[in-house]
Design a protein that fits this description.
The chain is α+β, with helices and mostly antiparallel strands. The protein contains two helices and eight strands. It has two domains: 1-17 and 140-166; 22-139, Macroglobulin (MG2) domain (Immunoglobulin-like, Sandwich), CATH 2.60.40. Helices cover 19% and strands 42% of the residues. The chain has a four-stranded antiparallel sheet with strand order 1-2-3-6, with no helix packed on it. A four-stranded antiparallel sheet has the order 5-4-7-8, with no helix packed on it.
């Protein structure tokens, strides 16, 4: 029983920081009606430079809420001061939201252009301005895996102490 508790404690202590597994649970979204469609672009609140941000894309006809079968893929372009940072297509997955995880390389205002497509036909398009904040130097000074590393060391010490008693 003690071994099971010890192993469980070691596993729990080595789990990396929970920020690595969240998409944009506490996020915000830009919602608009355009050309007969409701467009929803969700993203993490206050994105930081050099940190991953999840962007989710959804659209459906105004008169048919929650019917997302109107598009097969999304074309996304990310631009800052006329400099192209990303451009590419994203296929709609069978399960889960259509989205992109991206790390903005610097702070500033970026235009995120989104075009929903059904095959080669355009369904609807929009853009939003996303303000990326500078990365705070005091956040996670040892990196995102610091919690896992500290947990691993503590787990090792606990393991040593338990087996030394026997």
């Amino acid at each position: 029983m003690k071994s099971f508790v010890l192993i469980l404690a070691c596993l729990l202590l080595t789990v990396p920081n929970s920020q690595l597994v969240t998409a944009h649970g506490g996020g915000v979204s830009q919602e608009e009606f355009k050309d007969g469609y409701f467009i929803d672009i969700g993203y993490q609140k206050d994105p930081l430079a050099f940190e991953q941000v999840r962007l989710d894309f959804a659209t459906y006809p105004e008169n048919e809420p929650q019917t997302e079968d109107v598009f097969t893929d999304v074309w996304v372009r990310i631009v800052k001061d006329k400099e192209l940072f990303f451009s590419g297509g994203i296929a709609k997955p069978v399960f889960g939201p259509t989205g992109l995880t991206y790390a903005f390389p610097e702070e500033g205002s970026y235009e995120v252009f989104v075009r929903f497509q059904n095959g080669i036909d355009m369904v609807v398009e929009t853009s939003l301005i996303l303000d990326v904040l500078p990365k705070a130097d005091d956040q996670q000074p040892l990196g995102p895996y610091s919690a896992g590393g500290v947990g691993f060391v503590i787990g090792g010490i606990l393991t040593f102490l338990v087996f030394k008693r026997k």
